[in-house]
Design goal:
Length: 202
């Protein structure tokens, strides 16, 4: 499914919220016959009473992040390693791929969500145990030691290890999200034949 803009979903979220608020506005007060008895002043006051309605995105974030801050930072580091920027095309970070996946996985089924959460938590746990710091803070050589499963031969059976299972899924998802971003499409990195791209989630 092609996701054009996060703003589209935010606008939809604002519509049902606005309708009941509008319904709560008091009906205009009708002036008394002949314009006497203060009816004119009451009608004028009613005309000045307007309910100001704001779009949901200007008041609060209607779609909270799916990943925790620590998980999202680990995903950013993984994305930067899997799809680095080159001299001719943007990488995963510039393309906003981790943020897009945060939205996409949040809208996915519980199985896929579990793969990402367990994998990112496991990656951070391994990093803390082996190097005493979060995965996002590892240098390239340290991070490479924890991503060793990516160099193993691909098989039909999913890996039993949660981190390896996550890395297998993330490798495909980060590549697809980066290659189909609008920024990458403008740089000629879009997947050949797709003709589609998603807009950055602002």
């Amino acid at each position: 499914m092609l996701i054009k803009r996060r703003r589209f979903f935010q606008t939809l979220a604002a519509i049902p919220a606005a309708a009941p608020l509008v319904a709560q506005q008091p009906p205009p007060i009708q002036p008394a016959p002949g314009g006497r008895g203060g009816g004119g002043r009451a009608a004028a006051a009613a005309d000045d009473t307007k309910l100001e309605i704001s779009v949901a995105e200007s008041v609060a974030e209607p779609m909270p992040r799916f990943f925790t801050p620590a998980q999202l930072e680990a995903l950013r580091r993984v994305g930067d390693i899997l799809m680095p920027a080159t001299s001719t095309s943007p990488g995963a970070l510039a393309a906003g791929a981790p943020e897009f996946l945060d939205f996409l996985i949040g809208a996915s089924g519980p199985g896929r969500q579990s793969v990402y959460r367990a994998g990112l938590d496991g990656l951070n746990a391994q990093s803390q145990k082996q190097f005493g710091k979060a995965f996002k803070d590892l240098d390239n050589s340290q991070a490479d030691m924890l991503l060793i499963s990516l160099r193993q031969p691909w098989t039909l059976d999913e890996p039993a290890d949660p981190v390896a299972r996550f890395l297998r899924a993330a490798k495909a998802d980060v590549r697809t999200a980066t290659a189909n971003s609008r920024l990458a499409a403008g740089a000629g990195r879009r997947i050949a034949g797709s003709g589609l791209y998603w807009y950055p989630l602002d």
